Amino acid sequence: MASGTALIYDEEMTSHKLLWNDPVCDIEVPERLSCCYEQLKSYHLVERCVHVPAREGSEEEILLVHSSEHLEVAKSTQTMNEEELRRVSGNYDAFYFHPSTYRCARLAVGATLQLVDAVMSGQVCNGMALVRPPGHHSQRNAANGFCLFNNVAIAAEYAKLKYGLQRILIVDWDVHHGQGTQYIFEEDPSVLYFSWHRYEHQEFWPSLRESDYDAVGLGKGKGLNINLPWNQVGMGNADYLAAFFHVLLPVAFEFDPELVLVSSGYDSGIGDPEGQMNATPEVFAHLTYFLMQLASGKLCVILEGGYHLKSLSESVCMTVKTLLGDPVPQLTGEMAPCLSAVESIQNVRAAHKPYWKCFMYEDIPFLQNVSTRSHLLKKTDPNPSPEHGSEITNNKETAKVERFLKLHMKNILSPVPPIKTATTDSKVSAQLLPVPVPLIKEMDKTEVKALVSAFYADLVKEDKTLLSLGSMLAILDKILKKEVCSGITESPSAAVSVAVALRHSIHFGFQR
């Protein structure tokens, strides 16, 4: 079986940059890439990954998705001066050219295809490609929204052609709708495309009617295009998990993909000036973990957006840690989805009810008069009451978000209690656990007796039943003291092991 996680990064992709003033494009900076790589190094994650070199995507590979006219325009920019580049850039919506843009975009395509090859060939189990310019907005014949070539769409076509795949899932968790990807695959029955995105009833860019929940695909692709529109800002961890649990995962398991590609934009994370959402970095660990259960673990994560550098880099690290097999961290914050999220989820399920067995037998009505329809009235209120708690979202509060994330990630990465399992016998843990757990803390009989002797002095008599009870109490003591999060001991009355599965009940109950 394949093992290992690929990481693809090439510093040359940071040479693509804006040469003039443009308030629309000035957030797409080279540091988006370099800060992610530096954060991965600081957590010692780079050294744990399998290094796969980037390469240039070939013209033939780019033409799997894009027109020859689009390719020729991109090629022609390599020798242009600044004035010419600015003029050509003005032909597109929210895009800029630099003399190195074509080269960087080809590297982004090639890096993505290298990742697909590494995963499909069994060199690695999964991986992440840190690339720019991003891709999910680019269309067959046009650059759009910082994107020149559609990296993920090219990867899907490449995987179908080279490996004969018939079912590919594309998950787009960027905060913007990947309309380019939708247009490319909306009639293709071999690609299931899921996108959640800030929409606000068509008021948020790209402001397309076809970004709403009722755009389900065309022709043979009906039911295979899933849009989940967020109609208000401030969506958090619970909203994202609800979207996965109630829409994506039921459909994905029924679709049974052979490969999962993620258009991994982190502008859906806290602090991002584009998304204005409240999801914290650890939720991306959970989303990644769920997707790892599909396609026998064949998962390729490709960077898209993300414009708050601290939030972006921490979320990338959470994703890579999960790909490497690290335990997913505990989620924080309110765990009930907001009303607006529930409304959007219900409408998506109703729209896709005719196409999926997982929805077919449920009574799921459309909700026409959703709560956010009155959003225009709310704009006149100088002191609106947000449906979510803290909205650390606007650009002026970047420093505040950075301070929050610094403390938050310290707690996430060093939880109390720590992610450790106490056991009274290493042989027991070896029999009980399907995979090795390197953080087990073994307790000997002397330690057990010392911990419980005040209550059970008879333990010194080596009574097996009392010793077993003492072992359980000793583990419970460690959980209550927050030295470990769980424990395993052995019952003398049967050849079975007993797990003290009290992590959540102790942590959330007794500590109060």
From TrEMBL:
Q: Where in the cell is it found?
A: Nucleus
Q: Which UniProt keywords apply?
A: Hydrolase, Nucleus
Gene Ontology CC annotation, any one: nucleus
Give me any GO biological process, just one: epigenetic regulation of gene expression
One Pfam family assigned to this protein is Hist_deacetyl
Q: InterPro entries, per this entry?
A: HDACs, His_deacetylse_dom, His_deacetylse_dom_sf, Ureohydrolase_dom_sf
Q: Which residues form the Histone deacetylase domain?
A: 28-323
Alphabetized CDD domains for the sequence: HDAC10
**What terms describe the molecular function in GO for this protein?**
deacetylase activity; hydrolase activity
Q: Which SUPFAM superfamilies match?
A: Arginase/deacetylase (SSF52768)
Sections of the chain in a coiled coil: none
The family annotation for this protein states: Belongs to the histone deacetylase family. HD type 2 subfamily.
Name of the protein in question: HDA10 deacetylase
Q: Which species does this protein come from? A: Bucco capensis
The protein's gene is named Hdac10
